[in-house]
Amino acid sequence: MATITDRPAPSAAPPKPAKRRRSKAVSLSERRPGFTVYGILIAFILGSAFPFYWSFLVASHDDATFTAEAPLLPGGNFFVNAGRVLDTIPFWKALGNSVIVSGTVTVSVVVLSTLAGFAFAKLRFKGRGPLMVFVVATLAVPTQLGIIPLYMVMAEYGWSGTLGAVIVPNLVTAFGVFWMRQYIADAVPDELIEAARMDGCSMIRTFWHVCLPAVRPAAAMLGIFTFMMSWNDFLWPLIVLNADNPTMQVALEKLQSGYYVDKTLVLAGTTMATVPILIVFLVLGRQIVAGIMQGAVKG
Amino acid sequence: MTTELSVARGRGSEPRPPRRDDNDDIGPGKLSWRYRLTNLDVKVSPYLYIAPFFVLFAAVGLFPLLYTAYISLFEWELGADEQPFVGIDNYSTLLADSQFWNAMVNTFSIFAISTIPQVIIAVLLAALLNTALRGRTGWRMGVLLPYVASLVALTIIFGDLFGVQYGTINNVVEFFGFDRIDWQAERWWSHVAIATMVNWRWTGYNALIVLAAMQAIPRDVYEAAWVDGASKARQFFSITLPMLRPTLIFVIVTSTIGGLQIFTEPLLFSPSAGANGGATNQYQTVVLYMYQAGFQSQDLGYASAMAWVLFIVIIAIAGINFLLTRRLASSGEA
Question: Would you identify the family this protein belongs to, as annotated (chain B) (predicted)?
């Protein structure tokens, strides 16, 4: 990977042939990549997309045809199977539940993380250092492993089976606080906060009018990641919810568990559950990519 | 706070009293109530802002973990009338439990088969994405597609693809003249199948993290190498890889913490096996065994002991990694 730059080459370098200047000099290659690079990438992406296609393919046939002929093109039976999914599991309810759970968790995590991040990044108070160290230390703690007492508490207070039982344990994340603190430390100049304080803003007004507008992009990213994590959460909802009031993931599991599994029915369900996520991805994919490249961590 | 000054003089004729920082020493008798309020605001606000996180985390993160340790010292059957104290019996039973060790071996085996190829492919993929592609964002989104999809849905789809009799993957295997593979019954192949799901999901995501690190490498280093006549391959192995080391460690560690808790894939891999992880537990992982012991056999004490052992293993690995990273950071030239 030889480099191309718009800066003058070091004097010791032999004169390079003139290169086309590009507005964004981010490339590390001498020229546009060749057919091979595109070929490999296309193969990789086709591999990534294949399971989705497969899911839809199976879902669009009926069970007998599929077993007998193993077709490679979609049939016209998808809506029949989709109808059977709606009869078998409370699909719309599960979808609504997932939206409620993920939405609530997302709002809570973003608001509380931004508040705490602001305090850690910009305010001086006793114990700030040790408390932040504590937050960072909890990043590596797999909270999943605390599910047994959580379950007992939920059973004790009659919360089992309710959405609250899924929401409450996820209202804060250490990752969120850490992420917002890092961003606020860089994005909000101290002078701006000083100025607001001089003008007589209380702390909360300073936060509201100075900090919040500046951190919107980071908050949006945290929101997207939190939503996705919460949407895909499975172990805890599986334990605490029942088949009548499931999230999307739990409903899918119930669809699959049985002695005779009708593939077309199950894969119609997975297809239907995947569509909303794909739509969100098409709309927000750019931000998700940017978020990961800025150093997002697995939750 | 724009309350009126309590001094009733001609409006506006008074200059505002200077605001003071909380660190100011001011003489006694000059403390207006408003100053005190501001002082209070400065002192208390930070704690109010971080309180929700700490209170909630204590309740739903820290307390459950510690309480898990407490439960693990009892014979704690779900719904039983009493829970006798048994000390470390659960732990000694656990360490003599062949099913537990089997689950540990499975977990590490699946983790190894999934992490090693994944990191290699992620680096190569990042190198490809780091060229002057047309439509960069599109390609990046493309490799990220598996990461956003629902894990449960995809595991079910993969379970179908890996089917023994009608599975597409076996059709391909047969097409190339090999024997059909029993992906579910054979221990090694079941690990490969589950690791494939993990790889399929995370490779693109990790490639983007590596890509970000690649772009942060200063270009004059490459320029100097280019001037010295280093080939592209040489540049990759002598510059890119060493510079990526911290990022690769980070990727490996996050994969470790996630990989040791693998649960969804083995649970849903075969609809009939459920929490057994196969007829002979050939692909049962630790968290899956914990789930089975706690929520199907209702033996919460035993499951809690398992949770704690796994917790200690994860923390130990994270700690080892932290030391490694620190050593590398101090010895590295970057």
Answer: Belongs to the binding-protein-dependent transport system permease family.
Q: Does the B91-331 domain belong in CATH 1.20.120.610?
A: no
Which residues of chain A lie closer than 8 angstroms to B41, CB-CB? Answer: 202-203
DSSP for A194-212, written as a single string: HHHHHTT--HHHHIIIIIH
Contact A270 B311 (CB under 8 A): no
- The confidence score (pLDDT) of residue B309 equals 94
- Would the CB atoms of A146 and B61 count as touching at under 8 Å? yes
Mean pLDDT of chain B: 83
CA distance B28 to chain A (A): 22
Instruction: Determine the structural domain holding residue A79 and report its residue range.
Output: 37-297
| Residue A14 within a domain | no
- For chain B, the straight-line distance linking the first and the last C-alpha, in angstroms and rounded, comes to 49
| Domains of chain A: total | 1
**Residues from chain A contacting residue B130 (CB–CB below 8 Å):** 1, 28-29
Residue A42 confidence (pLDDT): 92
8 Å CB contact between B250 and B122 = no
**Yes or no, beta carbons of B148 and A277 under 8 Å apart:** yes
A5: in domain: no
Residue in chain B closest to A67 (alpha carbons) equals B166
Element (H, E) at A153: helix A147-156
Domain ranges of chain B: 91-331
Average pLDDT over residues A256-270: 79
Contacts of A178 (CB under 8 A, 6+ apart): A117, A135, A136, A139
**Alpha-carbon span A94 to A90, nearest angstrom:** 6
Amino acid at B171: N
> Residues A224, A284: contact at Cβ < 8 Å?
yes
Confidence tier at A22 by pLDDT (50, 70, 90):
very low
What dihedral do alpha carbons B314, A117, B216, B134 form, nearest 10°? Answer: 100
CATH code of residue A240: 1.10.3720.10
Q: Domain for residue A225, yes or no? A: yes
Residue A7 belongs to some domain of the structure: no
CB contact under 8 A, A148 and B303: yes
Rounded CA separation A228/A101 (Å): 11
Give A-chain residues touching B126 at CB under 8 angstroms: none
Q: How far is CA B15 from the centre of its chain?
A: 57
Greater confidence (A180 vs A285) lies with A180
User: What are the φ and ψ backbone dihedral angles of B128, each rounded to 5 degrees?
Assistant: -65, -40
B125: which chain A residues are within 8 Å (Cβ-Cβ)? 44
With CB atoms and an 8 Å threshold, state whether A28 touches B257.
no
- Condensed to tens digits (0 to 9), the pLDDT of residues B26-39 reads 555 566 887 888 88
Least confident of A137-151, A220-234, B117-131: A137-151
A161: left (phi over 0), alpha (psi -120 to 50) or beta: left
Amino acid at A192: L
Asked if residues A171 and A109 have their Cβ atoms less than 8 Å apart, the reply is yes
pTM of the model: 0.82
Please tell me which residue of chain B has the smallest CA distance to A224.
Answer: B148
pLDDT in tens, A137-183: 888 778 788 899 999 888 888 888 899 999 999 999 998 999 899 88
